[in-house]
# Entry
Amino acid sequence: MHRGLIAPGALAVAFLLPAIPASAAGASPGAPGIGDPYYPAYGNGGYDVSHYDLRLKYRPDTDRLQGTATILARTTRDLSRFNLDFLLDVGEVRVNGAKASFTTSGEHELEVTPERPLRKGDPVTVVVRYSGVPSQQQAYGFTSWHRTPDGGVAANEPEAAWWWFPSNDHPLDKATYDVSVLVPDGTQAISNGTLQSTRSRLGWTRWNWRSAQPQASYLATLAVGRFDVTTGTTESGIPVVNAYSRDLGAHDGAARASVERTGEIADWLSEYFGPYPYDALGGYVPNTDTGYALETQTRPFYSPRQFADGSNVSVVVHELAHQWYGDLVSVRGWRDIWINEGFARYAQWLWSEHEGEGTAQELADHVYASRPADDPFWTVRPGDPGPENQFHLAVYDRGALALQALRNEIGDTAFFAVLKGWPRKYAHGNASVADFRRYAEEVSGKPLAALFDTWLYEPAKPSAPAARAASVATASPAAPVQPKSWRKIAATNGVHEH
Ligand SMILES: [Zn+2]
# Structure
């Protein structure tokens, strides 16, 4: 397959060597990965992106995507070459206006060699022109592009960007986004943030979306199809834009009865986590046959199947909780996934308590008591589950159980101060599980290493004395009562498929 070209200019570089500034003469290639031990090839080394400008054209009938990505970045070292993560066919790359040579390598690497080496600390503008059929592209044998009868959707974790724009694909490199998509009239293009404008001409409509606050690349989303778009404003004044595929069939009512409560839920969550962090809010339900939901920033993705049993507000609570825990404060490395999922699950427990369908304590007791010590569930360590178990149910349920143990250890006042203070402390940045432990210790004044070890890191069920010490399942450990909310919460478990 023809996927890259060495431009003739690359040969000329050798003759330009004497003109290279001394400070860049020792420049070497940037790393093909950002240094995440779970996913060594994800992200790239040597630069930091501040903004993506994506100007796209998409044809729903053929799934053909054409685009120009303009990437504003700054080098963090001298670079003779750097990588982007991308799968579609590239026609041209320019670096600071000059044509650059490029080739592909590995599963998803686009290697770019600028005409001249780049010096550390310099601003760099990279323009990539590309096209392709996203649904025909795979990496590691899977795709994150979901073709629908009326278009396509990019939403997955930890990788979704490769199918629609070149990026430094790791949460460590957040950036702002302008996403402008040209689609045939009558078709809608949904993305993150604020809809700045739409414009129609000659049978095509351009949708201009803006994410004005930093966003991780996996949280950027694109959905093209026939959508019904609803708008509103939360009580706290945040504009809400929701979108529903017009082909949701029997799931339509339940989907709307859930996602239309987005503003109410975001306001409710802000009592626990602090003010909602973004200037846009919403959710969308495309007609995919996927089973999961995803916390795409400001506008979560929901699969129709999540509404098969009627409305599911709990999944909305989960994805909106991620706007603080996952999006505003992102993992430092993918091993820190508990920082996202343990808290989003715990938010569902708080909602259950709010709805009178079982307290967080009862849900924690149920998780502990309903799984015997020989259940493989307990061999997964939520604090460092390994890439193969990154989205294992234990990261969610044992992860939330660990938070209840923490709450019982430090008391409600300190616990809720931690829940609210954390998003502010690391806003728009990244943090690790160890950072969270240190923060909880600082706020509560208690040493917590042993508690974290027992509930997050031991590959075994915490012992009965440990559970008693954490006030878990003390009432009737042999006969756990299943809280009313249990099945609804379990229905949100349709996590990752590849
Ligand atoms: Zn989640």
Q: What stands out?
A: The pocket of zinc ion is lined by residues 318, 322, 340-341, 344 (CB under 6 Å). The longest helix spans residues 393-425.
